[in-house]
């Protein structure tokens, strides 16, 4: 053994060439990061030629305690085995390693063994390490996606747009996924390593990481902290003073970094779009094509009966003594990931719903999915995972009941079979615009196919007994302009009489402040009046909402819910109308003038004008951008008076080339969640060639 000691003098992982070929150069240029199902080459340097009849063997080790060892075969065998080829002469050997398309993802240690003719280890070099990721460019990988434009968006794009607001007033915020920022990949594997399965049986967990169904499900459990060492602590009501308010985040990277640096302690706080965005970052980083989805008028059906029962007292106030009650969310975010499902019948491949927001237990864990989008559209609710819950999110009925003080349900005042699951949205592949994917989840409203799906799923397809009577002569609707937060505004309630005689009725109009997931924050305004509506006429009433009234109870989501109840002699039942009114927010102006060149200083100019009739205290700008700069805070000195413009500037040096987004958030005591964004095109340094003529 000693006669050949020191023969292997260098192992070159050829990270620059391999990472470029494997589309991982954005993650790291020094460490080797490759994708499964695609070969990569390394070079061995020897101090002399290999001794006669000696040969090389390769062994891979996986796991913190190296629980899994894989011997790399010398020639191509079955498709599910690692193998390598060897080329070289004298003192240099090129090894090309081939991983199977279903290889385990993770952090590998590579041991190169020089073997004697009788099978003994003469020398070994075992310090080389590399990471292996899923490969959506490989036809044999179950995450294979054949469209390059989709791959550029759903794997490679570090910037995104999240849709929020209401179905009829959709707004958007920019988000920095940052999946290729420094050490984010390491934190993604740290997330996997801290799951319950990994801590309980690490060898079994590692071996199952070849399967993106298993890994993606684990990620939905680990992004929230309910019952495990997860990343984010969910909270849906103020105060957030012991953490960061959900609306202040503009990217996933600071969240993942904070979780890791704090010793895998949950970061405070997240809500649905934050959970979904962090899951999107982790999945894209690991190589699973993923996009963030927003479902407007999303149902949370706790009892699985495919209906949301809303219990109200005679004053139209929530009257629900159940510890866990159905709720309607103005919007709800989850992610879709692309994969082939070997565990399901044909037709369930493609986009899979994954919901990391902790809502209901699934096999004992707060996770949801993966659930095939095709199964939801077709009403096939027996497939894994959580199909009935996801189906209800986009299809449930909303039934409003009037309830007696003793809890008895007296009567249904409104049945809505069309509102849930509206304008389901994601960012377009072709730019910063919205793509509507509602028809991926459901057939057109009222179509024959929709009725067939409802019958298959067990959802009611006709009006129940209380809805079969002939409609009355009065109709009720609520209309409003798009009001701006900080202003007084009017809501118009219209009563239309379609009958041939005059109608007399009592009209109750109520405005309440709610969160986006229907938690009540307080009553802003209430009016009860008697109205007379002439035959074939429309009567209008105005509900005036003053800033001083609604600012006392409005949530950080700036959402007002207006209810109108009309009771008239001769009508079969009271008539109810409900409208969710989001208050629009001002925007920040973000400008980055001049040409952006990598590693050369650039200055951003940020400005904002206070639109409120009151001063703002404690103003702070948060700035971040993938490839531009890490999350940075700029505090505003003093108060910002009504109508005052505040301007700040920030210098930074871009770290990576390409089209980048600079994201800015402004928060203060009275005005929160004000966003702005600027696009920055970062170019390579230009080095001119100088030719000297003689």
Question: How would you describe the overall organization of this protein?
Answer:
Pfam families: Transglut_C, Transglut_core, Transglut_N. Its EC number is 2.3.2.13. With 694 residues, the chain is of the alpha+beta class. It has 13 helices and 37 strands. The strands form 10 sheets. It has a 6-stranded antiparallel beta sheet with strand order 18-17-16-14-21-22, sandwiched between helices. A hairpin with a 5-residue loop joins strand 19 and strand 20. The longest helix has 15 residues.
Brief digest:
The protein is α+β, with helices and mostly antiparallel strands. It is 15% helix and 39% strand.
SSE arrangement:
Layout lengths: L7 E5 L2 H7 L10 E4 L4 E7 L8 E8 L5 E5 L10 E7 L2 E7 L7 E10 L5 E13 L14 H9 L2 E8 L2 E8 L7 H10 L2 H5 L1 H7 L3 H12 L8 E3 L18 H9 L5 E4 L1 H15 L3 E11 L6 E6 L14 E13 L10 E5 L16 E2 H6 L8 H9 L1 E7 L5 E8 L5 E6 L6 E3 L1 H4 L6 H10 L16 E7 L8 E9 L5 E12 L5 E14 L4 E8 L1 H4 L8 E9 L7 E8 L6 E3 L4 E2 L4 E8 L10 E6 L3 E7 L9 E8 L5 E10 L6 E10 L11
Parallel strand pairs: 2-9, 12-13, 15-19, 31-37
Antiparallel strand pairs: 1-3, 3-7, 4-5, 4-8, 6-7, 8-9, 10-11, 14-16, 14-21, 16-17, 17-18, 19-20, 21-22, 23-24, 24-27, 25-26, 25-28, 28-29, 30-32, 32-35, 33-34, 33-36, 36-37
GO cellular component, one term: mitochondrion
EC number: 2.3.2.13
GO biological process, one term: nervous system development
């Amino acid at each position: 053994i000693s006669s050949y000691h020191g023969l292997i003098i260098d192992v070159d992982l050829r990270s620059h060439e391999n990472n470029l070929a494997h589309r991982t150069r954005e993650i790291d240029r020094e460490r080797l990061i490759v994708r499964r199902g695609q070969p990569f080459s390394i070079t061995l340097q020897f101090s002399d030629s290999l001794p006669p009849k000696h040969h090389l063997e390769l062994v891979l080790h996986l796991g913190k305690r190296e629980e899994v060892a894989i011997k790399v075969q010398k020639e191509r065998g079955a498709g599910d085995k690692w193998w390598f080829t060897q080329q070289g002469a004298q003192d240099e050997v090129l090894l090309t390693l081939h991983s199977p398309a279903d290889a385990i993802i993770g952090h590998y240690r590579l041991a190169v063994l020089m073997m004697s003719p009788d099978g003994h280890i003469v020398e070994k070099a075992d310090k080389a390490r590399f990471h292996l990721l899923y490969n959506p460019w490989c036809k044999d990988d179950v995450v294979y996606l054949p469209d390059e434009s989709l791959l550029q968006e759903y794997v490679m794009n570090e910037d995104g747009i999240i849709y929020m607001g209401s179905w009829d007033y959709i707004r958007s915020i920019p988000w920095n996924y940052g999946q290729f920022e420094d050490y984010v990949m390491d934190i993604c594997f740290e997330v996997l390593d801290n799951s319950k399965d990994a801590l309980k049986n690490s060898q079994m967990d590692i071996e199952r990481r070849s399967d993106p169904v298993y890994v993606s499900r684990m990620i939905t459990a680990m992004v929230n902290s309910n019952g495990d060492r997860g990343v984010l602590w969910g909270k849906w009501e103020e105060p957030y003073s012991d953490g960061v308010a959900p609306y202040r985040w503009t990217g996933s990277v600071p969240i993942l970094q904070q979780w890791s640096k704090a010793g895998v302690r949950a970061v405070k706080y997240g809500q649905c779009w934050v959970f979904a965005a962090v899951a999107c970052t982790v999945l894209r980083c690991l190589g699973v094509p993923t996009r963030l989805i927003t479902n407007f008028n999303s149902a949370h059906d706790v009892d699985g009966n495919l209906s949301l029962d809303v219990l109200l007292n005679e004053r139209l106030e929530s009257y629900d003594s159940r510890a866990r009650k159905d709720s309607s969310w103005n919007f709800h975010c989850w992610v879709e990931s692309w994969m082939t499902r070997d565990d399901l019948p044909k037709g369930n491949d493609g986009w899979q719903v994954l919901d990391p927001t902790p809502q209901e237990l699934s096999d004992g864990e707060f996770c949801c999915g993966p659930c095939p989008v095709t199964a939801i559209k077709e009403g096939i609710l027996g497939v894994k995972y959580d199909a009935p819950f996801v189906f209800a999110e986009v299809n449930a009925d909303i039934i409003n009941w009037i309830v007696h003080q003793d809890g008895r349900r007296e009567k249904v005042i409104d049945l809505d079979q069309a509102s849930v699951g509206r304008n389901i949205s994601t960012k377009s592949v072709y730019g910063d615009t919205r793509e509507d994917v509602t028809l991926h989840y459901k057939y057109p409203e009222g179509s024959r196919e929709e009725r067939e799906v409802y019958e298959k799923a067990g959802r009611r397809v006709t009006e129940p007994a209380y809805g079969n009577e002939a409609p009355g002569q009065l109709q009720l609707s609520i209309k409003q302009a798009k009001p701006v937060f900080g202003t007084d505004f009017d809501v118009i309630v219209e009563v239309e009489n379609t009958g041939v005689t005059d109608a007399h009725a009592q009209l109750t109009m109520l405005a309440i402040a709610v969160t986006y997931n229907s938690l009540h924050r307080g009553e802003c305004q209430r009016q009860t009046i008697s109205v007379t509506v002439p035959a074939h006429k429309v009567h209008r009433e105005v509900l005036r909402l003053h800033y001083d009234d609604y600012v006392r109870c409005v949530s950080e989501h700036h959402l007002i819910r207006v209810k109108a109840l009309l009771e008239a002699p001769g009508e079969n039942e009271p008539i109810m109308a409900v409208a969710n009114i989001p208050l629009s927010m001002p925007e920040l102006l973000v400008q980055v003038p001049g040409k952006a060149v990598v590693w050369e200083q650039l200055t951003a100019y940020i400005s904002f004008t206070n639109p409120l009739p009151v001063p703002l205290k404690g103003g702070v700008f948060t700035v971040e951008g993938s490839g531009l700069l890490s999350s940075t805070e700029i505090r505003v000195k003093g108060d910002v008076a009504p109508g005052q413009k505040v301007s700040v500037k920030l210098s930074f040096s871009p770290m990576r080339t390409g089209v980048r987004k600079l994201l800015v958030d402004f928060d203060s005591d009275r005005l929160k969640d004000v966003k702005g964004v600027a696009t920055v095109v970062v170019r390579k340094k230009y080095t001119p060639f100088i030719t000297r003529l003689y």
